[in-house]
Design brief:
The protein has 486 residues and is an alpha/beta fold. The chain is built from 18 helices and 19 strands. α4 crosses α5 and α6 packs parallel to α7.
Amino acid sequence: MKFIIKLFPEITIKTPPVRKRFIKQLRKNIRIVLKRVDENVEVAGAWDFIELATSHDDPVLVKQVSDLLSHIPGIAYWQQVVEYPLIDQDDILDKALEVNRELLAGKTFRVTCQRSGKHDFQSIDVERYVGGGLNTRTEAAGVKLKNPDIVVKVEIKGDRYFLVTNRGSGLGGYPLGSMEPVLSLISGGFDSTVSSFLTMKRGIRTHFCFFNLGGHAHELAVKEVAYYLWNRFGSSHNVNFVTVPFEGVVEEILTKVDNSQMGVILKRMMLRAATQVAKEMYVEAVVTGEAVAQVSSQTLTNLAVIDSATDHLVLRPLIAMDKQDIIDISAKIGTEEFVKNIPEYCAVISKNPTTKAKPEKIEAEEARFDFSVLDAAIADRRKVSVSDIIADDLTREEVEVVETTEQNDIVIDIRHPDEEEIKPFSLADREVLTIPFYQLRTKFSELNKEKHYLLYCEKGVMSQLHAMHLRDEGHENVGVYNPGKK
């Protein structure tokens, strides 16, 4: 089966050398991606369009190829075609009748012709001749130039022509790899997944950087959505997933930094770490999912203070987007269901977060921060190829979740102290310990190993994530207490 692939319009207005480079990159990307389903696929073309020929016409293969072409950056649209040698307009009409006779029955239609090369006729001549013939020699409902039921497409290229039998939209954007790589900060939420997608669509090879605040289960969930993004839109290029353990950094902020400044300082610490990772990967920019005024740390004043923590370029593809627009893109690209199952992890909760951070105030607060903790987190980062994380990491461990407690159970309230202060938690017949989530990793090993512990939080989400984390570290005596909503 043959396909004609049309280029994203912005590619066609580049200078000839740049255009040729982009097309060459796109050909290479298409070939790499489609070899997953057809080892002998043929890809050619150097200027106006790209031609693709599958090794056989099996309907399953054709459907797979069509789907893959719709998700490769750089493609405006693709057309499934039948190719013929150009003889004359009578032959074009005869072949158009063979292809479209049954489709046109009872339907309105029009004929469009795109032509390149030297011929003794014009495109409009073909449209009129073929259109008239189809109208009189089929059971069509008639010609309708505006909004017809069917558009019969003819493409003439030199001494051959194509009849279009199917068409699909492409992703647009530039061919992946045509721009310098970036490191995208991904948390698994709507914003970071959509911003990562947008850089990929723009032709930017996008690596992922995850700051682990919620344990191994949270990391696996984020790896799942990162793998999906890569597999769906960027599998022509290998990329890395970097995990930076940030629990210690969060604990340092929570215990030493003024409450109102914590959000901005956490972002600055993340940006410092991402910058170090990016430099060592020879990546010249980092990407975040921030949008102006979406949360308190994302005012223009705060973003300027956050950016002053790095000398690296910071890209924010969503900077002026509405939240609903971001969610709509997430639904369109298929990440919405992933995101719904990945909670936004707000490790630093400020009662009255600043919206106008002052550099001198931030510097004073950071002076109390032990930067060796940040250095240790960066040093302990883990890097894995996204193509490998399914085999290595994406398995889920079941965690015991109970609604009632047993005699040997001790409940641990892991909520932030501010939450605990606002809504105290106690049980009439059971001991309750208070250990904030950011201290669990260090304090849990000090507890009586003969006892069984159940973690508690308001929604039951963070308790499950941290229970998974503790079990991964070898603690079998931990579960989750979730009494449900009352």
